[in-house]
């Protein structure tokens, strides 16, 4: 067994280091993975730059990374569905107890859940990582490691669409064109708004029917009218991915009576929104926290070829260049930056 377990470890705000850690030993219900591809998420960068996200504070060194795939190299004694050599995608959230949320199928809401790269839990941006076997999903032969890693952000889109009740014939407004909304377009999308033209161009390539360029100074109610004019009607569903107060306001004003607004983006703790407008028009406002029960569907979508996430990977770095990769993400270059953790296999 290799002893090289190079890991990207965040020690404190702004202090990201590459260092060796012991290769972990899997428990009875765990597998040891040789990590292959790990995407950098905005939350990873936020922890690096700020040392916290809300109430989650980095108080001790933490391995980053949660968008991941790898190869099984060791199997726990109780694991039967996986074997050495299997290629798997990693679902980063694992319930620690069988509480009411676990039993109701909404384990993502469990207050004690383990989640990769969320303090105090380590992530998987390293050479070797152990994880619950039940939350490692075997990849079909025609699905690459990078596609397996991108199941995590794709799952955000799937879960948001489920929360919104997206169905055939739904018209949908997506606010934003960062990574999350771009993955949403692969699930279902018709209209989109953002400040940066290059992101709008990719959104259109991925399936947005009516890209709308937002200019600074555009008011929420005016934007809502523009959306209605482009669609010919107000959308049934709006998925808000920025967390910006003015965008949330636009989402509510734009959605038709009886429709649904889903909040994916995380912004300030408090926001001023037209709640009365939503109430008298029976516009439901629903939150999204990560995802649950999405990996099987995402794998099926990728394996069928109906969803193509490959164009979203715009930059690749070996694990040894993790700090440079994080800086690339921080500067907003490209879309998805992927780190390659296997020295002997840098392929997608």
From TrEMBL:
Family (UniProt): Belongs to the zinc-containing alcohol dehydrogenase family.
UniProt name for this protein: Sorbitol dehydrogenase
Organism: Myripristis murdjan (pinecone soldierfish)
SUPFAM superfamilies assigned to the protein according to its UniProt record, in alphabetical order: GroES-like, NAD(P)-binding Rossmann-fold domains
Cofactor(s) needed by this chain: Zn(2+)
UniProt keyword Zinc present: yes
CDD domains per UniProt: sorbitol_DH
Residues spanning the signal sequence: none
Keyword entries, A-Z: Metal-binding, Oxidoreductase, Zinc
SMART domains per UniProt: PKS_ER
Biological process terms in GO annotation: sorbitol catabolic process
Domain of life: Eukaryota
Location of the Enoyl reductase (ER) domain: 14-339
Designated gene of the protein: SORD
One MF term in the entry's GO annotations: L-iditol 2-dehydrogenase (NAD+) activity
Pfam families: ADH_N, ADH_zinc_N
């Amino acid at each position: 067994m290799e002893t090289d377990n190079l890991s990207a470890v965040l020690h404190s705000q702004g202090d990201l280091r590459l260092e060796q850690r012991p290769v972990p030993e899997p428990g009875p219900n765990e597998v040891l993975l040789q990590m292959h591809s790990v995407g950098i998420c905005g939350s990873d960068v936020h922890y690096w730059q700020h040392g916290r996200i809300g109430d989650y504070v980095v108080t001790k060194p933490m391995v980053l990374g949660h968008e991941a795939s790898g190869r099984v190299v060791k199997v726990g004694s109780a694991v039967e569905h996986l074997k050495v050599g299997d290629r798997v995608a990693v679902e980063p959230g694992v319930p620690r107890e069988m509480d009411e949320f676990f039993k109701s199928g909404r384990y993502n809401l469990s207050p004690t859940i383990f989640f990769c790269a969320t303090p105090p839990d380590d992530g998987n941006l390293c050479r070797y990582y152990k994880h619950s076997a039940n939350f490692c999903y075997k990849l079909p032969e025609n699905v690459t490691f990078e596609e397996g890693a991108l199941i995590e952000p794709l799952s955000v889109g799937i879960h948001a669409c489920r929360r919104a009740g997206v169905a055939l014939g739904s018209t949908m407004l997506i606010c934003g064109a960062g990574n999350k909304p771009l993955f949403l377009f692969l699930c279902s999308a018709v209209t989109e708004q953002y400040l940066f033209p290059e992101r709008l161009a990719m959104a259109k390539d991925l399936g947005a029917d009516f890209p709308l360029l937002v200019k600074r100074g555009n008011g929420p109610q005016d934007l809502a009218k523009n959306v209605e004019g482009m669609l010919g009607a107000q959308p049934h569903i709006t998925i808000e991915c920025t967390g910006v107060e003015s965008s949330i306001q636009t989402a509510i004003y734009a959605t038709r009576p009886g429709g649904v607004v889903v909040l994916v983006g995380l912004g300030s703790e408090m926001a001023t929104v037209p709640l009365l407008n939503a109430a008298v028009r029976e516009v439901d406002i629903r939150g999204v926290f990560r995802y649950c029960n999405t990996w099987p569907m995402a794998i099926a979508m990728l394996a069928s070829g109906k969803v193509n996430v490959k164009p979203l990977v715009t930059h690749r770095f070996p694990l040894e260049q993790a700090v440079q990769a994080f800086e690339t993400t921080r500067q907003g270059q490209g879309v998805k930056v992927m780190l390659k953790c296997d020295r002997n296999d840098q392929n997608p």
